[in-house]
Design a protein that fits this description.
The protein is mostly helical and 384 residues long. The protein has helices spanning 39-55, 67-81, 86-104, 114-127, 130-149, 165-172, 183-192, 198-208, 212-217, 258-270, 292-307, 320-333, 338-345, 350-357, 367-374; strands at 3-9, 17-25, 31-36, 223-224, 229-232, 235-236, 242-243, 252-255.
């Protein structure tokens, strides 16, 4: 039976102390107690714990793993079971090593609460960008969700902690000329690399919207140059290992413009070939998987410096992912439906597409006229 009882030490002396004890049995029949300074706190905690015991999800504090231990178990699952690519695992490892473990790694999951996670968020914001803070919080939520699924904690203390909807929209809003290259900038970049091996890969990035890893993993048998279809079926991680697309939605067919088809037909005649099975569309000089940094530094950034396409700090304004943003903006401009834009980008959900590019979709000009036209059939009805 679960009860809350009062306990007093040194009664009748100047050192008298009082506490409230939550006394209960877990789902295995083991007895536990937890001490609180106030009765209301003890009752509230015990009520929630009783529900967890009935559901079979409760973990007593002394049996609970720490955040650091839960993070390591989660990372091992991502590496050994889900077999995520090296670059993604490296990012997760940095989130754990640099942010999560130093700040809250020693706290047991059963002791972790939303206020503690919210304080963790505030400390992250004080020392890091909002984007990095959001990524670390996402990793923490995933760590706790994994622990919850494995029965190591009853609830996800990070589930309700957010940066704030308004702030997320402001930080995530993409602008042409800052985050997305303008058409004239893309034309100048492609003109500047004409005749080099960077031209076809930058052209495909801008006119088909592939991620860098997808470009580096693209094979000639993924292209149907007669029909004008590019099929994304694999990607290359930062170490050059080939694997499946980032998600199930990542496997997709993208229609190519006649211009891009002609670019790739010309490139096929010049493309370096290696004796082996890769048959890559955009290999390095020896026919093997090209390095992302090589494409970005020697292909894109050097060209931007040459053309003076720089930010306020004098650095190249756009990265490889900016060309993917350009493709998305181009498809939206051509009035493709949001669902089709999602499919061509390989996003796992329509919400992801809206979160990233929602501000680029038409705002609904002429809505009043459209509503009048929609109700025109009622013009002949009798007035009431």
């Amino acid at each position: 039976m679960a009860t809350v009882r009062k306990r007093t030490w040194n009664k009748g002396t100047p050192n008298e102390k009082t506490a409230w004890i939550a006394d209960y049995f877990d789902q295995q029949g083991d007895r536990h107690i937890k001490t609180f300074p106030r009765q209301a706190e003890a009752k509230a905690w015990l009520a929630e714990t009783t529900i967890q015991v009935k559901q079979g999800t409760h973990t007593a504090e002394r049996q609970s793993v720490t955040v650091a231990q839960a993070a390591e178990l989660w990372f091992e699952n991502r590496r050994d079971v889900e077999k995520l690519e090296t670059a993604t695992l490296k990012q997760y490892r940095n989130h754990i090593r640099l942010h999560i473990v130093p700040k809250i790694g020693g706290i047991r999951l059963a002791q972790l609460s939303a206020p503690i996670v919210d304080d963790f968020k505030d400390r992250l914001l004080a020392a890091n960008s909002r984007v990095m803070t959001g990524k670390v919080l996402t990793s923490l939520r995933s760590i706790l969700a994994h622990a919850q699924a494995k029965g190591r904690v009853g609830h996800n203390a990070a589930a309700a902690v957010r940066l704030g909807a308004k702030q997320r929209r402001e930080s995530g809003r993409l602008e042409i000329g800052r985050d997305i290259p303008a058409k004239d900038e893309v034309r100048r970049i492609l003109d500047a690399v004409q005749g080099t091996r960077w031209h076809p890969i930058l052209a495909t990035a801008a006119m088909a919207g592939l991620r860098s890893s997808e470009l580096r993993g693209l094979r000639w048998n993924d292209l149907d140059l007669d029909v004008g279809i590019l099929r994304v079926r694999r990607r290359a991680d930062e170490t050059g290992n080939m694997g499946s697309p980032k998600s199930a939605a990542g496997a997709r067919d993208i229609p190519m413009s006649p211009w891009l088809v002609n670019v790739l037909k010309r490139w096929r005649l010049e493309c370096p070939r290696a004796k082996g099975v890769l048959d890559l569309v955009f290999p390095n000089g020896k026919g093997h998987v090209e390095n992302h940094a090589n494409i970005a530094n020697r292909g894109l950034y050097a060209t931007e410096r040459k053309l003076g396409i720089l930010d306020a700090a004098g650095s190249p304004r756009y990265g490889m992912h900016s060309l993917r943003h350009f493709f998305a903006s181009l498809m939206i401009e051509q009035n493709h439906l949001p669902k089709r834009v999602q499919e061509m980008l390989g996003h796992s959900s329509l919400q992801m597409t809206y979160d990233r590019y929602g501000d680029l979709f038409p705002a609904g000009d002429g809505e009043r006229t459209k509503m009048e036209q929609a109700s025109a059939f009622l013009a002949a009805t009798k007035s009431v």
